[in-house]
# Entry
Amino acid sequence: MKYDVVIIGSGPGGYVCAIRCAQLGMKTALVERYSTLGGTCLNVGCIPSKALLDSSEHYHVAEHRFEEHGIRLKSLEADMAQMIRRKNKVVEQTVNGVDFLMKKNKIDVYHGRGSFVDAHTIEVHMENGDKHKLETGKSVIATGSKPIVPASFNYDKKRVITSTEALNIEKVPGRMVIVGGGVIGLELGSVFARLGTEVEVVEYLDRIIANMDRDCSKELMRSLKKLGMKFHLKHEVTGVKASKTKVKVSVKKRDADDNFQIDADYCLVAIGRKPYTEGLGLENTRVQTDEKGRVSINEHLQTDEPDIFAIGDVVRGAMLAHKAEEEGIFVAEFLNGEKPGIHYHLIPGVVYTWPEVSDVGYTEDELKEKGIAYKVGKFPMKALGRSRASMDTEGMIKVLADAETDEVLGVHMVGARAADMIMEAVSLMEFRATAEDMARISHPHPTYTEAIKEAALAATGDRPLHI
# Structure
């Protein structure tokens, strides 16, 4: 078969790229090694984890807040197996939706392992042993990433697990150790903590979610501690040993000889992800990778092989589904002769704990490193009438603005619906709005977004109205 473009990998970056290519009139094929489309995000990442996060939060609210709301329950219990069944149904509906979109856009889909024979030939090895050779003018590598698991952790997928296995635990564990205080570990840790699991987090750095603003780290850890989660900051795991039913995790203080052991039901390893390029046959092309295994690209997302492009987790930048989607669209439009652009600095980040955490732009530490003079405006969620009404009073909004021009340089949120509220900041920052602009927009009352207005008022001077 001959195609204008073949995309290897059907995650958000890959399937969105395929759709846009097809919309622009290119004969398009999508290659996916697994039986379902959607990649990590839809199958074992973003979508299933959010399904479990919502289920566990409903349970937690019922257990701890319903009585205050005047709702009385008897014999409340968590049915973890049903939560998993619901999660699986959500995943099935979502991946079926991607199947529909492929058919709607007349995209040929090949299920099998794709590898380059040369720059314009891709061989697809099917599960049944059959092979398909696809001739293509252009190719896009969108193969994503996989969890990093050191050999010393003895990863067995049973007691020593990654996020993939954690999404299918059907009985609430008594105790769980999370290695890594980043987004994935904290989201899944909060799921189990809400359901009654004793969760201990081991983090090598001095704070959790270290890539976000320090105030966000502090606020989130304060909230997660209220759930009962315990944190060992500036510690490292030196070894993990598992039996059929338990796991022993050896922990060492980073800057000292203090050692201890944690006995648990599971050890969830969440120390990051690495690009997945195994079996792609890159050696048959001029495509190069860097020291971290990422595919090397130029400003057009083009590899050293001019007709091969790469997007998403497999290249530099944040490993975010929405970043991959933007890159997929970029490549499609570039191939169509257009001049697309991506403002990477304004790609928002989100942690889907509760309260949620979100951010866009610079952190305070980054502004200090760059020597940029700035102003800070903060507003606590507990000062909002809407937050008191819903009992979601944890968190804050923080606005950073240029000291001279008042342009908004960064916005950081911890609070209810922060994942959705961040888009106000993204939209305004795309048009280089000032804190004054943000403050003068009329925000509906009562809403959580009023906190954004108040934080912007604080950033413009001593002007917040409700503190």
Summary: The longest helix spans residues 80-104. The two ends are 66 Å apart (CA to CA). The first strand starts at residue 2 and ends at 8.
